[in-house]
TrEMBL record:
This is Magnesium-transporting ATPase, P-type 1. Mediates magnesium influx to the cytosol. It comes from Achromobacter agilis. It is a multi-pass membrane protein. Its main location: membrane. The chain crosses the membrane at residues 102-122, 134-153, 319-337, 349-373, 741-766, 802-825, 868-891, 903-921. It catalyses: Mg(2+)(out) + ATP + H2O = Mg(2+)(in) + ADP + phosphate + H(+). The gene is mgtA_2.
């Protein structure tokens, strides 16, 4: 049972076991699994991919009824009906009956079922006809039924809500749709040398789930490979395949297989679902979708590895073990005491099992599910979409937020502010070169390119259509940090090729050997390099991001270009961009700071621009480290550095990931907010990955939470909702643990001295059931403002202390009730045990229900802090039923009896004393331990 609980609670209260996966991206396989693929899966998948890689394009198009222009809309619809959705089998929702079975199949329900069977054996099967009673078995069965149905209904509703929220943020693929009159198209898929489209076709965005075999997809940096594909055309197309092979370095893909191999994952002209494009671009033919993909065939047979357990999963796991250990100690003690003192071991066993059930929060899976789902819906109203439900708690527990600068601190509205020569004088030629570069590049167009292309007057002045033709392109990647296009320029009857390169300053200086000033070209000496750095530093201090531009004339006979051609360039100048700070950034940073969240800026931009923006938004910079500094540090040095600094500039993707992991290793709950390809590793490494709906595919897929508005203020709202969700979950654990501990302590005292059981097993079970039903309204409860001002963390040790501190308070008044029933109402012999048990049942139920309102807040309940109306209504209903039950016709079935009216003034005094003492001791607890 303990093994089951450990795995059960580590999966967001069973959500993934009982419905759709909330994270739909294929989970990574362990490194080395690919090497054993032939023996474990994959002979069929391996052979199929090898066969497809060897066929020529014409045979492939014929096989899938497609063409270079892709499928027509009608063909795609027909194929969709034939092949189904592009989803692997394990992502399909469970049938309702399978979900119902899984909602029942947990150790708590199994224990209750066993107890019901024992009750039937002892009360019906083995009893004399006149003594037979179905009451206990029916009540316990009802408890199982209510627990199962409530959880089933809540999780079905949660799953539907989560799917509806996720549908708001869809990943898509760019596909070619052919003209039915010209299904084959005509142009070849020669990216960069030709165009991105084929005549007779158009580009459309299609949800990944709607892709079918035969679709022609266009790939660029940041895209996920949406299905298994055969590459048709590629230029510097690098794909990260770590999700399948565990290899950290990306591999280059080509339109033709260059070397023989027997392993499908080593094929150079095939790309597989679950991988992603790091740089370059290409086109590909979809050859397999869904469960027919390589990953789909591997998924059911090869061990999958998820990300490291989050703070939520670790916390609920530890809390569960605290409660389990307590149950394993107390239940045997109750069994032994009652067995030796009463002599009826079967009755003692049933009573001990009832105690074990009472100590176990059997509604916890349902409460956690309902609370998280309610939190997700509330957050959606604040423009925050939750992809993975347990990330809500992580958001509330977050005490460090690592964020990029662009679009978060700034407006993400880049403006081309200046275009200058190498010494800072305005220069139209630099703008013209930059325009040609941005216009002809077909990879991932970023906001800098968009800002350049807004200068439409340059296109008219250059007369692009008549004078220029694109020859090739060398795409951007994060190691070179630059990109180039090659154009053929026709001027005065003479053709020549011009390589135009733009990129980060230092990377451009590494490939430039000369510079141009006016019409003169000079060698790039060290003195001139110092002048260049001085000029660009001045621009940076003004908050401008500087991109250098270099050119090189090439032979007109050369048709293909690569990274090696980016050498001996002539530096012509810079284009400088302004990204103004957001007006909301300052207040948002202050709100996060007041909420106990430390913000750290992690950016690939230069430090001078970053510091300028930080000053303008009121962000106090303690210390700055550069990527080069991080590179030199070992893990111990890095740990110290990430504690003291809050700005990190000129970072690579690996640097960002390493910083996040270092913070987590030091016990921080880390959120990372990013939207670029370079942010994906850090998003996966964080406790909670945060992206935006405008992010590249791989970043959205890696994130747990998607913001519909890229703003720290929206994120602050999400943090508050996360804390509300956590607080409401913690309420249930505190209330249940403390009240159950008090009840068991009272039972131990009573069992040692009473000649009969202080309460029958059925009374304990009924009391526990009624109490748990009242707790189903906790997800709707209010949370005190002071609890939302700091991050919330799991504290299993604190829960144990809380349980031991507050539990015995109820025992004091339980013992007072024993004395009342024994001495005042003379219920002091076995023939009067029903009166005794009825009196304690009512007092125990009301005090257990009152504790809900006493412990949900550190303030005075009902006066300074009132519960939400759903919780008030549920507790009022349970109190009313508890008071009426001994007087109702059902009393005999539960072996209760009507209480004398003189009992109720005593009851009111006991309950009042309980509330006063609890409130006084809350003050002592808060002064010593605080209140979470």
């Amino acid at each position: 049972m303990m093994k089951f609980l450990k795995s059960f609670f580590s999966s967001a209260a069973g959500l993934r076991r009982t419905g759709r996966h909330f994270r739909r991206s294929p989970m990574p396989l362990r490194a080395g699994d690919a090497a054993t693929v032939s023996s474990e899966v994959g002979r069929h998948a391996n052979r199929q991919m090898l066969d497809l890689s060897r066929q020529d394009d014409g045979a492939l198009f014929s096989l899938f009824g497609s063409g270079r222009g892709g499928l027509s809309e009608a063909q795609a619809q027909t194929s969709r009906e034939r092949y189904g959705a592009n989803e692997v089998d394990h992502e399909k929702p469970l049938s309702w009956y399978a979900h119902l079975w899984l909602s029942y199949r947990n150790p708590f329900n199994l224990l209750l079922t066993a107890l019901a069977i024992l009750s039937w054996i002892t009360d019906v099967r083995m009893a004399e006809p006149e003594d037979q009673s179905w009451t206990a078995a029916l009540i316990i069965g009802s408890m199982v039924l209510i627990s199962t149905v409530l959880r089933f209904a809540q999780e079905r509703r949660s799953n539907r809500s989560a799917e509806a929220l996720k549908a708001m943020v869809q990943n898509t693929a760019t596909v070619l749709r052919s003209d039915p009159a010209d299904p084959d198209g005509s142009g070849a898929h020669r990216f960069f040398g030709g165009t991105l489209h084929v005549s007779g076709s158009r580009q459309v965005e299609v949800p990944l789930a709607e892709l079918v075999p035969g679709d022609v997809v266009l790939l660029s940096a940041g895209d996920m490979i949406p299905a298994d594909c055969r590459i048709l055309g590629a230029k510097d197309l690098f794909v990260a395949q770590a999700a399948l092979t565990g290899e950290s370095l990306p591999v280059e893909k080509y339109a033709r297989q260059r070397a023989s191999t027997a392993n499908a994952l080593e094929l150079e002209n095939m790309a597989f679902m679950g991988t992603n494009v790091v740089s370059g671009a290409g086109s590909a033919l979809v050859v397999a979708t869904g469960s027919r993909t390589y990953f789909g065939q591997l998924a059911g047979r090869v061990t999958q590895v998820s990300r490291a357990p989050t703070q939520f999963q670790q916390g609920i796991n530890r809390v569960s073990w605290v409660l389990i250990r307590f149950m394993l100690v107390m239940a045997p003690i109750v069994l032994l005491i009652n067995g030796f003192t009463k002599g009826d071991w079967l009755e003692a066993l049933l009573f001990a099992l009832a105690i074990a059930v009472g100590l176990t929060p059997e509604m916890l899976p349902m409460i956690v599910t309902a609370t998280l789902a309610k939190g997700a819906l509330r957050m959606s109203r604040r423009k925050v979409v939750v992809k993975r439900l347990d990330a809500i708690q992580n958001l509330g527990a977050m005490n460090v937020l690592c964020t990029d600068k662009t679009g978060t601190l700034t407006q993400d509205r880049i403006v081309l502010e200046r275009h200058t020569d190498v010494y800072g004088a305005s220069c139209d030629d630099v703008l013209a070169y930059a325009y040609l570069n941005s216009h002809y590049q077909t990879g991932l167009k970023n906001l800098l390119d968009v800002a350049v292309l807004q200068h439409a007057e340059v296109e008219r002045k250059l007369n692009l259509a008549a004078k220029y033709r694109k020859v090739d392109e060398i795409p951007f990647d994060f190691s070179r940090r630059r990109m180039s296009v090659v154009v053929n320029e026709t001027e005065n009857g003479r053709d020549h090729h011009e390589l135009i390169c733009k990129g980060a300053l230092e990377e451009m200086l590494s490939v430039c050997t000369r510079l141009r000033v006016g019409n003169e070209v000079h060698l790039l000496t060290e003195v001139r390099r110092a002048d260049i750095r001085r000029v660009t530093a001045e621009l940076n201090r003004d908050g401008l991001r500087v991109i250098a531009v270099g050119v090189k004339e090439m032979p007109p006979t050369q048709e293909a270009y690569g990274v090696a051609d980016e050498s001996e360039l002539v530096l012509v100048g810079y284009i400088a961009f302004l990204d103004p700070p957001k007006e909301s950034t300052g207040p948002a940073l202050a709100a996060l700071r007041n909420s106990g969240v430390e913000v750290k800026v992690l950016t690939g931009d230069v430090e001078l621009v970053t510091l300028k923006v930080c000053r303008e938004v009121g962000f106090e910079v303690r210390k700055v480290y550069l990527g080069a500094d991080i590179e030199k540090m070992d893990d111990r040095q890095l740990a110290a550095s990430v504690r003291e600094a809050n700005v990190f500039a000129r970072l690579t993707p690996a640097h960002k990931e390493r910083i996040v992991r270092s913070l987590r290793a030091q016990g921080c709950t880390v959120g990372f907010m990013g939207d670029g390809i370079n942010d994906a590793p850090a998003l996966r490494a964080a406790d909670v990955g945060i992206s935006v709906d405008s992010a590249v595919d791989i970043s959205k897929e890696a994130a747990d939470i998607i913001l519909l508005e890229k703003s720290l203020m929206v994120l602050e709202d999400g943090v508050i909702e996360g804390r509300k969700t956590f607080c409401n979950m913690l309420k249930y654990l505190k209330m249940t643990a403390s009240s159950n501990f008090g009840n068991v302590f009272s039972v131990l005292v009573a069992s040692a001295f009473l000649p009969f059981l202080p309460m029958l097993p059925i009374h304990l079970l009924l009391q526990n059931l009624m109490y748990d039903i009242s707790q189903t309204a906790i997800p709707f409860d209010n949370v005190d403002e002071e609890l939302l001002k700091r991050p919330q963390q799991w504290d299993p040790d604190g829960l144990g202390r809380f349980m031991v501190f507050f539990g015995p308070i109820s025992s004091v008044f339980d013992i007072a009730t024993y004395a009342l029933m024994w001495y005042v109402f003379q219920a002091n012999a076995p023939e009067h045990q029903t009166l005794f048990q009825s009196g304690w049942f009512v007092e125990g139920l009301l005090s257990q229900t009152l504790i809900v309102h006493m412990i949900r807040t550190r303030k005075i309940p009902f006066l300074q802090s009132r519960a939400a109306w759903p919780l008030m209504g549920m507790t009022l209903m349970v109190v009313t039923l508890g008071l009426l039950l001994p007087f109702s016709p059902l009393a005999q079935y539960f072996q209760l009896q009507a209480l004398p009216w003189s009992y109720f003034p005593w009851l009111a005094g006991i309950l009042l004393g309980y509330c006063v003492l609890t409130q006084l001791l809350k003050g002592i607890w808060v002064r010593r331990y605080g209140w979470q």
